[in-house]
Amino acid sequence: MRKFSPIILFILILSSCSSVRKHNEQRSSCIPPEELKEDVDYAYAKIKEMHPRLYWYIPKKQLDHKFDSLKQTIDQPLTPLEFYFKLQPVIASIKEGHLSLRIPIKKFTKKELKSLENKKGMFSRFEYYVSGEHLYIIENKDSIENIKPGTEILKINDVPVPVYLKKYKNLISSDGYNTTFQPYFLKDIFFNFYSAEFGFNDTAKIETLYDKKIKTYILKRAEKSKTDFEKDKEQKKKTLERKVNDYVAFNDSYNRTFKFLAPDSSIAYIKVKSFSRTYSEKFYKEAFAKIKNAKAKYLIIDIRNNYGGSLDEINNLYSYLASEPFTLIKRSQVTSKSSPLKTNYFRKSNALNYTFKSLLYPAFLVSQTMSTYKKDSIVYYKMKADRETQPQKDAFHGKVFVLINGGSFSASSIIAAKLKNDKLATLVGEETGGANDGTIAGFYSYQKLPHSKISLPIGLALVQPNISFTNTERGVIPDVTITENIQDILDKKDRQMEWVMKKIVNDKNGK
Are residues 159 and 254 both part of a single domain? Predict the structure, then answer.
């Protein structure tokens, strides 16, 4: 078998190249109107089949009209990308933040990927801020062209930025009718849309405004230096500290942070950028043991700009804040007992993965089937987070403050809503981007539209915090509303944290 492995490898490489070429050819080809209309019908049919609460924020009659109207506008052939920009705004009108088409992007050969790995990013070396029709640079990581933080980008390749923003905003929705999520998500994904639309070019012209002066810059995708490669190599090292704090090499930062904010260790601070679950149990166990040993009286949990993640992680975190047994979420609803079997079990499997998964497939079928049950004509899916959980022995019982904003989405909104309902924390900041009363996620069925080949992930489970619902169709409203603006960011002024620290000082002084 060993002597044939190079041949097998060669065949796999050829197959991979062929797959990339086929994908890119299909992506650039024009699809006849009738086939595109079939894709519209297919997408809507699959959403209706699997989405457990489709008409939560939009009446059926209105959504039917949107899909019908869309088909009437398709009267000429379109590429998959052009079709995406027509269909996604209709799907976004459902107002379910997890429900979104995957933008059809170009695939790269191994040679092209290697070339990109040897170059620095172009737009990704800046941090951005979106306000209305304005796009600002708030951080210039490598001092590129000495562009100052606070610089507004007016045009990209001679096209006014508001044109891009208007187009891309229509592709994004949060859960329900809150308005806080869109600018946070858009600042992170703006250049994903841009690159998908215009490609990974090596140069771009931007027109900027700073201190009332307009300047033009030519951005370049520069070659990495020896120092850059050494830094890349260093960032790939997996130490225990990096594992526990969930190190993210892309931005050279930690996903989870714990520290004390006062010399007497009376104020503990935990920041979580994403509930990734990776080594999270060890992180919380160590953090709350230190909090208990220090006899801290105050805890600040920062979940701003946290788009969510693992229900198991937030269930575990909540167990360190609860004083009695609790149930984090209500029983999750699905549309049918067969829904959990539509999760594309073999998705993204190579030959070896496929073989291994095939052996485990019978167990998967049994497990998923056993996880559903029907009661009062409703089908439920069992999750760990819908069971009663005991508080941890090192659970914190002092005063808890939770920092939230429009970038707090999905699982972040679930735990924020639960903490607020149970009066275990004071929420400070902005309305969350995710809904107070739950969302549609849990796990997904990845559908592929038959002609355009665009991927459509559909959340299969209705996940709701175990609370008294507000029925506002909005995000989690903070107990204390404090918003930020670009000047606060440029001045590195955290007004939300400042309010909490002042509140703690007053509390210590008995005010």
Answer: no
Which secondary structure element, helix H or strand E, spans residue 130, and what is its range? strand 126-131
36-66 burial, b at 16+ Cβ within 10 Å, e below that, comes to: bbbbbebbbebbebbbbebebbeeeeebeeb
In a domain, 205, yes or no: yes
| 352 within a domain of the structure (yes/no) | no
**Element (DSSP H or E) covering residue 463:** strand 455-463
Alpha helices in 118-215 (DSSP H): 161-169, 181-198
Give bridge partners of residue 219 from the DSSP assignment.
Answer: 204
- Number of domains the chain contains: 2
**Helix or strand holding residue 331 (H, E):** none
Instruction: Let me know if residue 420 belongs to a domain.
Output: yes
Check whether residue 314 and residue 411 sit in a common domain: yes
pLDDT in tens, the chain (511 residues): 334 344 444 444 444 566 777 777 777 789 999 999 999 999 999 999 999 999 999 999 999 999 999 999 999 999 999 999 999 999 999 999 999 999 998 887 888 778 778 888 899 999 999 999 999 999 998 899 999 999 999 999 999 999 999 999 999 989 999 889 999 999 999 999 999 999 888 999 999 999 999 999 999 988 888 887 777 777 777 777 787 777 777 777 788 999 999 999 999 999 999 999 889 999 999 999 999 999 999 999 999 999 999 999 999 999 999 999 999 999 999 999 988 888 876 666 666 676 767 777 677 777 777 888 899 999 999 999 999 999 999 999 999 999 999 999 999 999 999 999 999 999 999 999 999 999 999 889 999 999 999 999 999 999 999 999 999 999 999 999 999 999 999 999 999 999 999 999 999 888 7
Measured distance CA(90)–CA(86) in Å, rounded: 8
Say whether both 257 and 186 belong to one domain: no
Give the three-class secondary structure for 57. coil
- Residue pointed to by tokens 């086939």: 35
Q: Are 88 and 101 in contact (CB under 8 A)?
A: yes
CATH number of 403's domain: 3.90.226.10
